[in-house]
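Problem: given the chain below (213 residues), write out its structure.
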Amino acid sequence: MRTITIVNPKGGCGKTTIATCLASHLSWDGYQVALADLDPQQSTTDWAAQRSDSYPEIEIIPFGAKTIRASRGTDIMVIDSPAGVQGTELRKLVQRSATLLVPILPSPIDMRASWRFLEKLFELTAVQTGKVKIGLIANRVKENTVIYRELTGFLGKYRAPYVAHLRASMNYVRAAEKGLGVADLPRYLAARDWEEWKPLMRWVKSKHSQAKS
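Solution.
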């Protein structure tokens, strides 16, 4: 089983939205998916409680579960990590992961916090040796703005690839209220969001996002 963890030093950066939407996309693509909630805010657990059985099944490991273990046969586990994870807790989270996705918002405060966090990530042995791969996501962006250009320049400075940008869209809010991801929404509502997710999903499924076997 492969583990993909969504991490960021700050709250409110969209970790839960990306975790739930990623799980939804993977389930539509035929993977058996588990989604683990490690964030004390329990937003992923609340999201799962709203999800209808009429959509592809996602196994939920709720916040507070005694063990973070998916059912046999699970292909991918997506972890929604807590904000501000660091030190030993961060190392353990990284060691159990194959892939880390780091969403970063287009603001000077978020970029500075993310810079310090990424520096710590790149110091970890699992990252340095390539056992864990990192992908960077520009999240809640508005294109053709100065701060968006600054963010893309910031993301381009790292060894980790800049794998996608996701717009600030009410579709994410509407979907979350019903326990859905944008992949669950109809095309006429979410076609643009589907397009923005394509490069992210290509990278997640590629060999570049996983250690060499």
